[in-house]
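[stage:ingest] chain + small molecule (magnesium ion)
[stage:ingest] validated
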Amino acid sequence: MVRTIIKTENMSFTYPDGTSALRDINIEIKEGERVAIIGSNGAGKSTLFAHFNGINQPTSGLIKIDGEAAVYKKKELLQIRQKVGIVFQNPDDQLFAPTVIEDVAFGPMNLGLSDDEVDERVEEALKMVGMSGLEKKAPHHLSGGQRKRVAIAGILAMRPEIMVLDEPTTGLDPKGVEQVMEILYMLNREDMSIIIASHDVEMVTQFADKIFVLHDGEIIGQGTPEEIFNDYETLKKAHLKSPKSAELLYLLKKNGVQCKVKLTVEDAFHEILHAIGEKSFHNLLHLIKNQLHHRLLHELGEENYHKMLHILEEEQENNKPPN
Ligand SMILES: Nc1ncnc2c1ncn2[C@@H]1O[C@H](COP(=O)(O)OP(=O)(O)O)[C@@H](O)[C@H]1O
Ligand SMILES: [Mg+2]
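[stage:predict] done
[stage:export] tokens:
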């Protein structure tokens, strides 16, 4: 059975100023899953993430990490933070040492590991994020994408089981986004559970196998990307858009084209090809059965005419997109 690594039970959180930021959150995340929490600004994503490693303590309800209800004492919190690593949205909130190497070494050093062990972890983490060779650089001299990767390395060096990344691609250029996503895929292949927050639906569709929709402090939807991005009501309520390819197919569907909504450009391409093929069959059959009916009957004879109709109808059936 797959292990549940994070589970919340009727978890709510209110900030000291009275802002009710999370209400009755019930989510379950399993080992090795790629999870995305999507929601617009102010939905509560960052507040939720701060519960995953014990920065925030629920006002009511509870959170279980690896089957155990979180305990908010120094020793237990340290254990949680070794298990769950959080990469904040803004690397500048995370990077503070004068050099890259010192920054990445900070976490493992605080775990009380030997110098050799720290060196080994830092080297490995920097290699994993493709930042080897830049150890002596000052973080503030790096590009946004590089700073993000150093921040990820700093968490990786703690060797967590679960990586939580708050808006990991916000503010990065396409190359930076690709590099970060590649790192996440690599980590997930090594069985690490990855949880990201985002409102970038294109990226989320490609990455996640499970999505939670957060709106105004509540979970209003959960499911696979296909389920979520076919649920227009929920998306609208959460002020989120669908991926562009899904929007295009949705428009076609609304206008009478027989097709299903697909989430990636490649899937959409095949779906549209199918739909066009079907449409041509439809038009051709219409022509044969109506305008050309008398002429073809006369030219071919009744038997051949019906044979031809039969073949075309059979082909049309074969060309229908699989359901
Ligand atoms: N430190 C804080 N004190 C009071 N309210 C806060 C604080 N941080 C966030 N909030 C409020 O909590 C809600 C959720 O915010 P946040 O978790 O940052 O959302 P998201 O990350 O989805 O944009 C918002 O209404 C926000 O204004
Ligand atoms: Mg946030």
